[in-house]
């Protein structure tokens, strides 16, 4: 009896190692942009959660094939059932962006929280950010003035969203952000005088912060105390920011 059990365990281990090797081949092909090879390998490994998630990514982004959100979601769901957290995050991304379904922020937040993945770089890999060039972006981020502007504008777009929300309109935690808007205009003009492409910087920050701002709104809108604390904190940060000494 024990001999048969040993054989079963051995075969299972052998099969697991084989699947692992196949996934490595698939991900190497993916990284080499050989999408068809990656697709073919993983279509034969439908019990491997990593391969299922990779298939979902391929269909989601239309890599070497037509974009198919239905297929992508099916693969992500199968991978999630096998415990793949990346697939769970990807399902959240689809719900957030309304890819093949209606936008559902609550479902997205649930997936993100359950996946416990907080690396926004994953989002960047799935979203086509409109960036002129990586070299240009590196130069901009290395500039101290740009860095300070990025800090100011990142907090400003969060404050603006909270200020315009129905909760603030009803409770009037912050009555006006006109002074903060004036600061932003002054900061904009300062950068324009230095021939900095303001639109490029703002578009980049808006793309980077889109998911964060939406999840922030979702988090605070059901807790009025948390909302008040967050909006007042953002307001004070921007109020105390000295444009004249940067």
List the helices and strands and how they pair.
Elements: H1 2-31, H2 35-42, H3 49-61, H4 69-81, H5 85-97, H6 105-115, H7 120-126, H8 134-142, H9 144-163, H10 166-171, H11 178-193, H12 198-220, H13 224-239
Describe it.
It contains 13 helices and no strands. The model is unreliable at 1-18 and 118-142 (pLDDT under 50). The protein folds into two domains: 2-126, Tetratricopeptide repeat domain (Serine Threonine Protein Phosphatase 5, Tetratricopeptide repeat), CATH 1.25.40; 134-245, no CATH class. Helix 2 crosses helix 3, helix 4 packs antiparallel against helix 5 (85-97) and helix 9 (144-163) runs antiparallel to helix 13 (224-239). By secondary structure, the protein is mostly helical. Helix content is 75%, strand content 0%. It has helices at 2-31, 35-42, 49-61, 69-81, 85-97, 105-115, 120-126, 134-142, 144-163, 166-171, 178-193, 198-220, 224-239.
Unreliable sequence segments: 1-18, 118-142
CATH topology of the largest domain: Serine Threonine Protein Phosphatase 5, Tetratricopeptide repeat
At the fourth CATH level, what is the homologous superfamily of the largest domain?
Answer: Tetratricopeptide repeat domain
Number of helices: 13
What level of helicity do the residues show?
Answer: over 70%
Q: Please state the overall shape, judged from the principal axes of the Cα atoms.
A: elongated
Query: Major β-sheet, in short?
Result: none
Structural class: mainly alpha
The run of helices and strands is: HHHHHHHHHHHHH
């Amino acid at each position: 009896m024990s001999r048969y059990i040993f054989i079963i365990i051995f075969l299972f281990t052998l099969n697991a190692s084989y699947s692992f090797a196949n996934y490595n081949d698939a991900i190497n092909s993916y990284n080499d942009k050989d999408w068809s090879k990656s697709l073919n390998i993983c279509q034969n490994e439908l019990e491997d959660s990593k391969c299922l998630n990779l298939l979902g990514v391929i269909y989601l982004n239309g890599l070497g094939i037509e974009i198919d959100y239905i297929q992508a979601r099916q693969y992500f769901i199968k991978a999630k059932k096998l415990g793949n957290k990346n697939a769970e995050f990807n399902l959240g991304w689809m719900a957030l962006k309304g890819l093949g379904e209606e936008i559902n922020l609550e479902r997205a937040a649930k997936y993100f929280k359950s996946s416990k993945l907080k690396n926004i770089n994953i989002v960047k890999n799935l979203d086509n950010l409109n960036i002129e060039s990586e070299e240009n972006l590196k130069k901009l981020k290395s500039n101290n003035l740009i860095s300070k502007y990025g800090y100011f504008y990142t907090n400003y777009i969060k404050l603006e969203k909270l200020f315009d929300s129905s909760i603030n309109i009803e409770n009037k935690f912050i009555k006006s952000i006109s002074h903060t808007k004036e600061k932003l205009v002054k900061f904009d003009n300062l950068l324009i005088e230095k021939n900095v492409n303001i639109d490029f910087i703002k578009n980049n920050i808006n793309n980077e912060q889109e998911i964060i701002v939406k999840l922030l709104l979702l988090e605070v809108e059901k807790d009025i105390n948390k909302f008040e604390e967050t909006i007042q904190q953002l307001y004070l940060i921007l109020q105390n920011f000295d444009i004249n000494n940067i």
